[in-house]
Amino acid sequence: MNHKIVFFFLLFFSLQSFSQDTTALNPKDIYVKENLVYKTADDSIFTGSVEIHRWTNNVLLAKEEYKDGIIVLFTTYYNKSMKGIPSRKTYYYENAFFKKKKENRLDFDGNIDSTIYFDENGDKTLEEFYSENKLVYSCEYKGGKKNGKELCLSDKNGMITNFYDNGKKLK
Q: Which domain of life is it from (predicted)?
């Protein structure tokens, strides 16, 4: 009997401490120092989530997710709904401070409308657009200019492919 009491006692406290670690913080609960994010409460490097709510009606506007003091995901939400439907998800390189890796734009149903990929210098490398979860446009970039294959799928003309070199269309 004593073993059961001790077990439930330990289970209760472990669940309580686990739930405290997963609670999202407010922006005022963190600060940035030397390109790392810290918790204000104990000055420790922050791993977890920060939620940004509208002050008038508490609707979720954005959520930031950090790992070892570096942002890994920033999600903005459609503010038409209390449900917190994501409108854009920006993924970051885990070894660099605020360097975008990929950005997804989402429709109201949560499907991806477009995806943009970035290299570690912040330059766009690939842009893709989707319609009904099917790729309809894709273009490669280098140094901020179209460079490589551009693919466009249209109802009228079918698949159109163009090639670019340093921003100039090849014939």
A: Bacteria
Whether residue 85 contacts residue 78, with contact meaning beta carbons closer than 8 Å, is answered with yes
Q: Phi-psi region for residue 57, left (φ > 0), alpha (ψ -120 to 50) or beta?
A: alpha
Asked if 129 and 105 count as a contact pair (C-beta separation under 8 A), the reply is no
* Other Cβ atoms closer than 10 A to 5: 9
80 alpha-carbon distance from chain centroid: 20
Q: Which residues pair with 92 in a beta bridge?
A: 100
pLDDT in tens, 71-83: 999 999 987 666 7
Smallest Cα–Cα separation from 48: which of 33, 58, 38, 59?
A: 38
Q: What is the pTM of this model?
A: 0.80
Angle (nearest 5°) at CA 134 between 105 and 158: 125
Which residues in 40-99 belong to E strands, given as ranges?
A: 48-53, 60-67, 70-77, 86-92
d(CA 45, CA 54) in angstroms, rounded, equals 26
Say whether 55 sits in a helix, a strand or coil: coil
Q: In sequence order, what are the beta bridge partners of 159?
A: 153
Task: Name beta bridge partners: 71.
Answer: 66
